[in-house]
Design a protein that fits this description.
single chain; Tetracycline Repressor, domain 2; globular; mainly alpha
């Protein structure tokens, strides 16, 4: 399934330009925080984005405001990807497209900020909407018999987070992208339904499913 670009370049006026600038900073922040973790300075994000740190502070006021805005933008992209996935005629194609799009965007890269910044009402609301859509995507794929029955929406979320991290050591971007594509293909194959699979049987997923409170509770400073 081919999703449209989630990096909009069209549009006119200051609002469209501001959003394009925001997305450029978001991509830079993903690179920086995926590589350096939550302690990365704003100056590193600014340098990666090709702007001055003073420019970022004039726009956002503080590092916290900047990071809160970037988290919202990242979740909005995942929300848009989920909306396109739900519109797909084939539930499995929709889920696969959602996962590959989110991995390409490194949607989980800002998870390094969990517990480091205060969550806003907007962040919580967008996160709620995003998780609700992912729940629906998973239910659709399982009802269609394409996704294994013991997989949960949180399994998908954690999977995307893992693929959002940068591997240790130097690696050319093309080589990294190639490795990531292969591993995502392996992971997707592991998500496919296994007819007759029951909990505890050989091939079933080990341990209990992820806990939603553990997943969301990380964001409480």
């Amino acid at each position: 399934m081919a999703f449209r670009s989630l990096h909009p370049q069209s549009g006119r006026g200051r609002q469209a330009e501001a959003r394009r600038n925001d997305l450029s900073v978001l991509e830079a922040a993903r690179d920086v925080f995926a590589a350096q973790g939550a302690g990365a300075p704003v100056s590193a994000v600014a340098e990666r984005a090709g702007v001055g740190a003073g420019t970022l502070y004039r726009r956002y006021g503080s590092k916290t405001e900047l990071l809160q805005r970037l988290c919202v933008l990242a979740m909005e992209q995942a929300l848009a990807a989920a909306g396109e996935a739900l519109a797909a005629a084939d539930p499995w194609d929709g889920l696969r497209g959602y996962i590959t799009t989110c991995v390409e965007l490194r949607s989980g890269a800002l998870a390094a900020l969990a517990g480091q910044i205060e969550t806003t009402a907007e962040m919580r609301e967008v996160a709620r909407q995003s998780m609700a859509r992912l729940d629906e995507l998973v239910a659709r794929a399982q009802a269609g018999g394409r996704l294994r029955a013991d997989v949960t929406a949180l399994d998908i979320s954690w999977l995307i987070e893992q693929f959002s991290r940068r591997p240790p050591g130097p690696l050319e971007e093309a080589a990294e992208r190639g490795v990531r594509s292969r591993l995502v293909a392996i992971a997707l194959d592991g998500l496919r339904a296994r007819p007759g699979l029951v909990p505890g049987a050989p091939g079933a997923l080990p341990g209990p499913p992820p806990d939603r409170q553990d997943y969301t509770g990380r964001w409480t400073p």
